[in-house]
Specification:
The chain is built from eight helices and nine strands. It is an alpha/beta fold. The protein has two domains: 181 residues, Alpha/Beta hydrolase fold, catalytic domain (Rossmann fold), CATH 3.40.50; 52 residues, no CATH class. Helix 1 packs across helix 8 and helix 5 crosses helix 6. The chain is globular and about 55 Å long.
């Protein structure tokens, strides 16, 4: 079997608050994993201390007063991460503001992609929220096969339009499927009129919000749409708008 005919690896680029995506990830991993040679998760917006002691995010369900001392005890076995814990204890949100900026995320993803390209000759990126933005920004540069963007963060509701989030989409040459909720606060049904997309970008709408809360029929439709895109032959340009997916 040649490298070209082998299955690609799927790199899942999580949203910042990935705990909200537990159901989404479980459903999509179960449905899509057979189509890929590997299923690799890149966690963005999380401290090194949190990843070291709680890689599955189970402590997030605990109250804050209990979480901090438990993490302190667990970190005794990870001395290289103690400085990250001190930052988190003093003010996690403020400390992460720079790390979670778009330039910082792009830099982190650049290093991750370089590492993964050495392991997987064929790569499909699946980016959530702001990491859908970073995925599309680097897709052409790193020669990934396709990009799936779930709930693309076209804008920050508190800030408004930021050209850096969208201007590259007009020139993207990697086949890309953007699946967007019609009620997504980061950009809904109006995006096809508000922004310009290259012929390689397809937009498919889902009747949901940014968290992708769907009923069973909606899940089935979403998974079928993703499979269709994954199995399609690249790199032929696609239509700009694939219509509405019910859910």
């Amino acid at each position: 079997m040649t490298a070209r005919s082998s299955k690609p690896a799927l790199l899942w680029l999580e949203r910042q608050d990935h705990r909200k995506d537990a159901a989404l990830m479980a459903r999509l991993e179960a449905a899509l994993k057979p189509s890929f040679s590997a299923f690799v998760v890149h966690r963005g917006g999380e401290t090194n201390a949190s990843v070291a002691v709680d890689p599955r995010g189970r402590l997030r369900a605990w109250p804050a007063w209990a979480r901090k001392p438990v993490k302190a005890l667990l970190l005794l076995g990870h001395p290289s991460r103690w400085n990250h814990y001190l930052v988190w204890w003093r003010g996690r949100d403020a400390a992460l503001s720079k790390r979670n900026s778009l330039p910082e995320r792009v830099g982190t993803l650049r290093a991750f992609l370089a590492n993964q390209k050495a392991k997987h000759p064929r790569i499909v990126l699946l980016g959530r929220s702001i990491n859908a933005v970073t995925a599309t920004m680097l897709a052409d540069e790193y020669g990934v096969e396709k990009v799936i963007a779930l709930g693309y963060a076209f804008r920050n509701p508190r800030i408004g339009h930021e050209p850096v989030r969208v201007r590259h989409l007009e020139h993207l040459r990697t086949p890309c499927l953007i699946v967007q909720g019609t009620r997504d606060i980061y950009g809904g049904r109006e995006i096809t009129k508000a922004y310009r997309f290259s012929a390689f970008v397809e937009v498919s709408f889902v009747e949901t919000d940014h968290d992708f809360a769907l009923d069973d029929a909606g899940w089935d439709d979403l998974i079928a749409r993703l499979r269709e895109f994954i199995e399609s032959e690249p790199p032929a340009p696609v239509s700009r708008n694939a219509g509405i997916v019910s859910g």
